[in-house]
Design brief:
With about 350 residues, this protein is an alpha/beta fold. Strand 6 and strand 7 form a beta hairpin. The N terminus and C terminus are likely disordered. It holds the Pfam family AhpC-TSA_2.
Length: about 350
Amino acid sequence: MEPSASKATDAAPPPAATTTTPHPLSAQPPSPPPSQSGPQTEPKVSISTDTPDASTPPFSPTSQTPVLQKGQEEFEGTLDVNNDLPTEKDLKRVEDLLVLDAKGQSVPFKELYNAPHVARRQLIIFIRHFFCGNCQEYLRTLSSSIKPDDLLALPTPTFITVIGCGRPELIPMYTETTSCPFPIYADPTRKLYDYLGMTRTFNLGTKPDYMHTNVLINSVQSIFQGLGTGKNALKGGDFKQVGGEFIFEKGECTWAHRMKTTRGHAEVSELRKLLGLDDTRPPLRKRWSHGIKGQDNEKRRSMSWGRLRSKSKSTKDKTASGVTTPERVEEEDAKKLVGSPTV
């Protein structure tokens, strides 16, 4: 009987062990803090950050929108730029900046308006890129309305200078395209534009009086003009840069106008009034295609009229004398006849 009792006592510990083991298995690990809850709580965080702050005004950037710095801002639409005169500090910053002529020679900006060899008063026009059809139309209208001789004959001798933001290699093309009689320079760095308060936009604006062509035609011509320059197609300048007009007299800026749109140049009639010419609107220019057609028509008309006249004359002579006369008789030069022996 003792062996059976010892067996019973030996078998008793296993149940005790089985009763103690379930306690650690049933115990659950402590929950982690909310910051370590894993990817399950990420959607809640993103939803909360997408909602804008109540303190921010409408259309303001949210916390996830990258905010541009002041120097990186891009403007769209009509800009709230002013026409304030550049300060003395601004002019001091720009007077030694260099501009380039058609040959690539550098000239300090100050020598364009304050030098012994220039007129006492200077109108400096800042245009957009060299392929801009709007600025090309502006210079065509300006050149047909304001002549260099008229400016120099004013009580205050005046002249005009044009500055673009492209490469100087394109200045000869631009001069030929616009028929501009005034000197043209280039500022590829666009520092003059920046320091004088001119900005950047793509807004077209309303059609000004100096535009005599269609917007679509201008755009197509600009594209083909750029492609026609080959390797210089990407050297016309910043397409978003707009310019303005500034009048300098005796080294000081006396009048300023900054463009708000890509067609926002000062009207030619306003410039004429400011310069002391008059305030009349510039005469309407004929389009270059119409001018060529007109010349061809006049030439054809004169040729056809001459042929008809010669034919009618030859028929009359033939009926009168029976001898045909040539339709065209070449006149001898009078100089050749002087002193020539007669037979």
